[in-house]
């Protein structure tokens, strides 16, 4: 099966009644006469904080899309990331990350210093980050396939190679790229994490996360951490997320096309001083993006408004179709102000170095007609300078 088919059909459904879409097991408890029953992958099936069969088709299909051994579904992207970090890190080890990443992830990694984990942050540039890895010799390397919000694209195979030269574990957040563009496990990464809240579920109505692993020992360890931290995905969210994954390819391909059209429109707009989109030849990592992703470049476009904060506030207020707010990846387009949301936990001096400034807007392009999005942007951009 090709990936587009795996997204729709790449799981086993063991429902005895032959339901086409797998059922929801809305239960906390499973019958246990002496020994617990086992799930299809051999874990105890007795209590839904540990294992619930509703999650299995979702875990199976995402694992196959990412080319992994298996996956675990969590009740948010952050729950997935925290369980992964707890499973790999201990006192007196270092963790290397790019200084640009989702703000809550950076805050979490930084907070682990109270357990003796040393955080090293490098500029999101392949050569600089590889140098940092060589020098810091971390236990774990963390990076995002496309960074948030200035959309840099590191050469993931080169980063994995540098990390593997001395045995570091590599964790990649593939939320922005999705398995449609990128499968980091195929380059040798150990774990791929998604905020399923975004493209996997895809409808701005679910909070969820998934971690995909390549090795059985990582699966067993992470399964225990999921149960101990209590971050398992709930059955209804798993049902909705599987439903979302079935349309991932058609949604994401259309969203990427619309994002390219929007980026090209913004690049010509007089009120916009810079457009940041890996699909534009002006993007500094366009070559890397082309090499890794082919002819699609994601559905998030960032851009700078001439006029800074005042213009940005007017711009957000003037949007009529696009929703101003946090998050991304759903069918509805959302315009985000990174300095006030996702990037606010990034220290001020890092934000300056990265260009996360008050003129920056991040746009998640949804499934509306791109012409309507372009008209909405044009109107809001022109009103923001009145
Ligand atoms: C790249 C990335 N990773 C992880 C997360 C965290 O996911 P969640 O909000 O589902 O906990 C987000 C959320 O915005 C994100 O953008």
How would you explain this protein's 3D organization?
With 386 residues, the chain is an alpha/beta fold. The protein folds into 2 domains: 3-246, Type I PLP-dependent aspartate aminotransferase-like (Major domain) (Aspartate Aminotransferase, domain 2); 248-383, Aspartate Aminotransferase, domain 1. The protein is 39% helix and 16% strand. The chain is built from 14 helices and 14 strands. The chain has helices at residues 3-9, 55-66, 77-88, 103-111, 126-136, 156-164, 178-181, 216-229, 235-246, 248-267, 286-293, 308-318, 348-354, 370-383, and strands at 37-38, 44-45, 70-74, 94-98, 118-122, 140-144, 169-173, 191-195, 209-213, 272-276, 300-305, 323-324, 334-336, 360-364. Strands 3-9-8-7-6-4-5 form a 7-stranded mixed beta sheet, sandwiched between helices. α1 runs antiparallel to α2 (55-66). It is globular. The model has no long low-confidence stretch (mean pLDDT 97).
């Amino acid at each position: 099966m090709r990936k587009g088919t795996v997204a729709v059909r790449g799981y086993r459904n063991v429902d005895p009644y032959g339901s086409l879409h797998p059922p929801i097991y809305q239960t906390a408890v499973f019958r246990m006469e002496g020994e617990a029953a086992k799930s299809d992958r051999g874990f105890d099936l007795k209590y839904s904080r540990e294992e619930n069969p509703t999650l299995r088709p979702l875990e199976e299909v995402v694992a196959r899309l990412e080319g992994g051994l298996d996956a675990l579904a969590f009740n948010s992207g952050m729950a997935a990331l925290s369980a992964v970090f707890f499973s790999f890190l201990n006192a007196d080890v270092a963790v290397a990350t790019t200084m640009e990443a989702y703000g809550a992830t950076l805050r979490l990694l930084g907070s682990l210093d109270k357990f003796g984990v040393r955080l090293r942050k490098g500029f999101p540039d392949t050569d600089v980050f590889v140098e940092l890895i060589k020098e810091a010799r971390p236990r774990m390397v963390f990076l995002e396939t496309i960074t948030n919000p200035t959309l840099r694209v590191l050469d993931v195979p080169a980063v994995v190679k540098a990390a593997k030269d001395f045995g570091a574990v590599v964790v990649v957040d593939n939320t922005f790229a999705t398995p449609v563009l990128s499968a980091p496990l195929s380059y040798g990464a150990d774990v791929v994490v998604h905020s399923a809240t975004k493209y996997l579920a895809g409808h701005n109505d679910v909070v969820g996360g998934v971690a995909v692993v390549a090795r059985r020992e990582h699966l067993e360890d992470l399964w225990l951490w999921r149960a101990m931290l209590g971050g398992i995905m709930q059955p209804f969210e798993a049902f909705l997320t599987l439903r979302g994954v079935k349309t991932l390819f058609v949604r994401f391909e259309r969203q990427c096309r619309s994002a390219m059209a929007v980026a090209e429109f913004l690049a010509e707009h007089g009120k916009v001083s810079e457009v940041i989109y890996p699909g534009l030849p002006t993007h500094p990592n366009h070559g890397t993006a082309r090499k890794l992703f082919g002819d699609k470049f994601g559905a998030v476009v960032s851009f700078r408004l001439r006029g800074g904060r005042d213009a940005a506030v007017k711009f957000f207020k003037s949007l009529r179709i696009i929703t101003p707010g946090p998050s991304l990846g759903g069918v509805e387009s959302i315009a985000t102000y990174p300095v006030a949301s996702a990037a606010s936990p990034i220290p001020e001096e890092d934000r300056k170095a990265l260009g996360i400034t008050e003129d920056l807007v991040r746009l998640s392009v949804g499934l509306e007609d791109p012409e309507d999005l372009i008209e909405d942007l044009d109107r809001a951009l022109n009103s923001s300078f009145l």
